[in-house]
Amino acid sequence: MTNGTIINPLINLNDGSVMPRIGLGVWKLGSGAETVNAVRWALEAGYRLIDTARIYENEAEVGEGIRASGIPREEISVTTKLWNDDQGYEPALAAVDASLERLGLDYVDLYLIHWPSALFRKDNPDSPALRRETWRAMEEIQQSGRAKAIGVSNYAINHLQEMDTYARIPPAVNQIELHPFWFRRDLMEFCQERGIVVESYSPLARARMLADPRITAIAEKVGKTPAQVLLRWNLQHGNVVIPKSAHKERIEENARIFEFTLQDEDMRVLDALDEGKSVLSV
Ligand code: 1BO
């Protein structure tokens, strides 16, 4: 697909639908004009995937940005996520309706369980039964057409294995923190072997890491920015990326990652940056 200023290829999901290889993530973008503008700029630049969540408190602004862009709804892939205190069958069904209402949309393209644990439920925060009940609701949400595809986020291998015991529909996507400083190759390959698309959030790690000399050296060699190199690394591992930015130029820069290739030796240098843990403070 060619839109705006970027070429934006699609990836096939295991349910027969597709999603763009790059999207705008709006985690930590503020409510109000910051998110509305970022969404509009991204869509004008050719992005066709916007990733939000109930907990980001900007679903309404995402909907506003989509409408302000003038781009037909059916050309845009919208993801939102169910927050931890909405886990469970009935709460999950109510949560998707509330998210759709805030977005001002009839359906989302992808609905995700944000975390495997109902972290804020004091009664039973890590309950396989609760995960099963939530997924039962997710399957109903997909069948009712309120979400075209369903998936999970922050699921580890054991959570995905557990799903084999109860899921009638497998997750289409596992959205996880993934970048060279937290490579998670085992989890990535486990998902890929099962046809679950890995969608990398925070693919640019932290700003200070963009200045790492091992990254800047590759960036200079290929004539791209460190951010473009990190995003390209993720793409070449087969993943979808959803970098966040509130800046128009940065949003456009982040999307120009389809017209160059990292050589195997550069990929190996980046693979070796793995520190084995999250670099974020959630
Ligand atoms: C708490 C939000 C993590 C990224 O979606």
CATH topology: TIM Barrel
Average pLDDT:
94
Distance between the terminal alpha carbons, to the nearest Å?
Answer: 34 Å
Q: How much of the polypeptide forms β-strand, as a percent range?
A: 15-25%
Structural class: alpha/beta
CATH class categorisation: Alpha Beta
Describe the strand arrangement of the main beta sheet, using strand numbers.
5-6-7-8-9-10-11-12
CATH architecture: Alpha-Beta Barrel
Beta strand count: 12
Q: How would you briefly describe this protein structure?
A:
With 282 residues, the chain is an alpha/beta fold. It has one domain (11-207, 239-244): NADP-dependent oxidoreductase domain (TIM Barrel), CATH 3.20.20.100.
Task: Walk me through the structure.
Helix 6 links the parallel strand 10 (173-177) and strand 11 (197-201). The chain has 282 residues and is of the alpha/beta class. Helix 1 (33-45) packs across helix 2, helix 2 packs parallel to helix 3 (89-103) and helix 7 crosses helix 8 (226-236). It is 38% helix and 16% strand. The strands form 3 sheets. It has an 8-stranded parallel beta sheet with strand order 5-6-7-8-9-10-11-12. The chain has a two-stranded antiparallel ribbon with strand order 1-2. The mean pLDDT is 94. It has a single domain (11-207, 239-244), classed as NADP-dependent oxidoreductase domain (TIM Barrel). Residues 27, 53, 55, 201, 282 line the site of 1-butanol (1BO).
Could you list some keywords that capture this structure?
two-stranded antiparallel ribbon, binds 1-butanol, TIM Barrel, alpha/beta, 282 residues, single chain, 8-stranded parallel sheet
